[in-house]
Predict the 3D structure of the following.
Amino acid sequence: MSTVQRGRDTDRAAQLTAALGAARARLARAAESVGRNVNEIELLPITKYFPASDVIILNQLGCLAFGESREQEAAAKVDSVRAELPDVPIRWHMVGRIQRKKARAVAGWAHTAHSVDSIRLLTALDRAAGDALAAGTRAQPLRAYIQISLDGDTERGGVDVNAPDLVDEICGSANTAEALEFVGLMGIPPLESDPDDAFARLAAERDRVQRDYQHRLELSAGMSGDLESAVKHGSTCVRVGTALMGQRPLTSPEVVTPVTSSSQTPPPPSSAEGSPR
């Protein structure tokens, strides 16, 4: 390794150390401000478009779970990290929209899927995870959040919050699936919306669905720009990208999407799977 490369690695480690410390402190303040225990809220680094070396640095700083949104990139990164850290039990989360044809691939590496939004996708993931369990390539069922569309625009992903019967059907199917573990709901504030209103609606939907289940349902909600509001409304997992990782590196026109405010995620481009940051 050259002196220049060592210097760059040292600089990046220092950047991530400072950013992680700031993100953890920010999350602690958000929890304290509403009387919550910060240990009940997972801070999930979103590492899409960033190299495996960043994951390794963050792991050395105590992070054991990471979020990705593009299956092909994620699979390669998982392999790279596993080669460097073969004995570290890292939990990989798929936070982007999942194409049904990618279900088998996702079930091969993901610990948790945050964006299940149809019976067809759920069935494909259940079948794929079941096959992986039978083959011994998975040790546990795939944890699944049901994504809720808070404005009814299901083209951007999610089950329409205004269709409670459909929400209940998908949640029920996830709960009874043999190779899935239904863990809760996920939501993203709609474009141009007030995150506080959006997260209040998501929390109300979680409370409605909760009545049918004995286990406590989790909430995957909140990103770099709106985590305080999400924590106020009960989020148990905040997905932090830009505030932790910095601006996305420019890789190639095919995979780079515009960086926007974390609470205003653009629709996914047709050529790649999009996701919350």
Observations:
- The chain has one domain: 3-245.
- The radius of gyration is 18 Å.
